Amino acid sequence: MKVLVVGANGQIGKHLVTSIQNREGFEAKAMIRKQEQASFFEDLGAETAVVNLEDDVEAIAKAAEGVDAVVFTAGSGPNTGPDKTILIDLDGAVKTMKATEKAGVKRFVMISSFDTSRKAIQDAPESFAPYVAAKHYADEWLKSTKLDYTIIHPGILSNDKGTGQIEAASEVERGEVPREDVASVIVASLENESTIGKEFQVVSGTHSIQETISSI
User: Fold this and answer.
1) Of 33, 128, 191, 213, which residue is most buried, by most CB within 10 angstroms?
2) Which helix (H) or strand (E) holds 102?
3) Total domain count, the chain
């Protein structure tokens, strides 16, 4: 399975490309913003495509040509304003969905925020609410498409080494989860067609990733 990783130069994205390249039967195509980011992925043997999420749908669709799945791991980051949040986390996500459809790809995995419900928008601090709203509407758009989607809602992200042990369900108690484990959850979701049309929250837990994702 060839997987286009959108937002590959992010922290989850790097773990994901590494995980894919180490998995038999999988290969990654890393979508990055700048050519100088390419060496990390080329050293892993992964193909790269230099495309900015603020580019048009056609540019993203060209990157998606010939792949079997698209994973959206991009984010505007904590140090940008609401303008970039809208352009990347909402518009960039929707353009990627449209590009995926244009390229004739069906499988799409979205890395969302832990809680993107309407209540979460209302309860969020003023500075964080635009991000939650952007993720909410991106998720809703994805669910309205004909793509074979999976939406993953990770808990509080950490840079701890992955344990391979998680808890995942439609609702779980908020907690931490290593980015490395989130990458493994994405690969397991791609391997399990039972995750198509599903969305779930994931945090660290006591059950193996494969076992948990297989039963989603």
Assistant:
1) 213
2) helix 93-102
3) 1
